Amino acid sequence: MSANMKRREFIALLSGAAAAWPLAARAQQGERMRRIGVLTPFAANDAEGQARLTAFAQGLHHWGWIVGQNIRIEYRWGDGKADTMRKYATELVALAPDVILASSSAAVAPLLEELLKEVAPRVTQVAVLRESGIAAGPGQFGAIQALAPSLGVEVRAVDVRDAGDIERALTAFVQGSDGGMIVVGSPAATIQRGLIIALAARHKLPAVYPFRTFVADGGLISYGPGFNDQFRRAAGYVDRILKGEKPADLPVQASTKYELAINLKTAKALGLTVPDSLLTRADEVIE
Prior knowledge:
There is one protein chain. This protein has 287 residues and is of the alpha/beta class. The protein has 2 domains: 3-103 and 226-249, Rossmann fold (3-Layer(aba) Sandwich); 109-225 and 257-286, Response regulator (Rossmann fold, 3-Layer(aba) Sandwich). Helices cover 49% and strands 18% of the residues. The protein has 12 helices and 10 strands. The strands form 2 sheets. Strands 5-4-6-7-8-9-10 form a 7-stranded mixed beta sheet, sandwiched between helices. Strands 2-1-3 form a 3-stranded parallel beta sheet, with helices on both faces. The radius of gyration is 21 Å and the shape is elongated.
C-alpha cells in the first residue's frame, strides 16, 4: 500500500472520528469520556507514524473503545529532538489524561551487525548510528562493540541527534575503505531516515537498519519488530489500565514478531549479491 493511501486512510479515520464527537457526546452523557495521550517522535505528516497510530486505533476499537463515544485521543507529534519530546510530555501530563502511551523502539543490535557481515563480507569498518541521549543508546553500541572483534570489524559511534553532525561524521568516515553502517533503533534515527538513507547511497555504504520502513524508503536491509502489531497490542494494555489495573502491575512483553526486509534494487546499486540464505529468510523482498 502506498504512503499516500496510508495518509488518506489515516486522515479519514481521524476526520470521521472527529465528526462523530458532538453526537456521541450527547448520546453518551451517562458514560465517562476517557482521554488517552499519545506521544510520538514522528512528524504529523509521516506515513509510518500514521500507520502505527491507525493500528493503535484499530486495537482500541477491538476492545470496545470508540473515539468520540467513550475515549478521546490527544496526539502530540515530535521532530526527533529530546527537548521537544520533553515539552510534549509535560503538556500531556498537564492535560491529566488517563493514559500516556509513549512510542518507543528496541533494536537487536548484535543481529544487525551479523547481518551486515553476511550481506557485505568485506566490510571491516562500521559506523554505528545511535542516539546517545536515550537510555538504550549506550547499551546498543556496547553490544555491537563487544561482538565486533569476533566478526573482524572496528566500530565507530555516530550520534544521530543533529542532521549536520550526521553528514559531517559520515563524510569523514568514508575516507577509509571497506566501510559499512549500522543504524540502531531510536526516535531520532527514524525521523532522520531520509537523510541517513541518502547518505548511505551517496557514499556507497552497505547499511543495516532496525525497521522495515528504512528498506521501503530505499535502505538495503533491515531486521526489527513489526510496529503495527506492537501498537495493536498496546491497545490491550490501555484497555486494562482504563478498566482499573495499575500500570506497574502489568507484565513487560517483548516483541513477538520480527521482520527481515531486503531491497534488491539497493543491493544492485551497491554492487552486492544478497546470499540465498538471506533471501529465503526474508519476510519481504523489494525488487
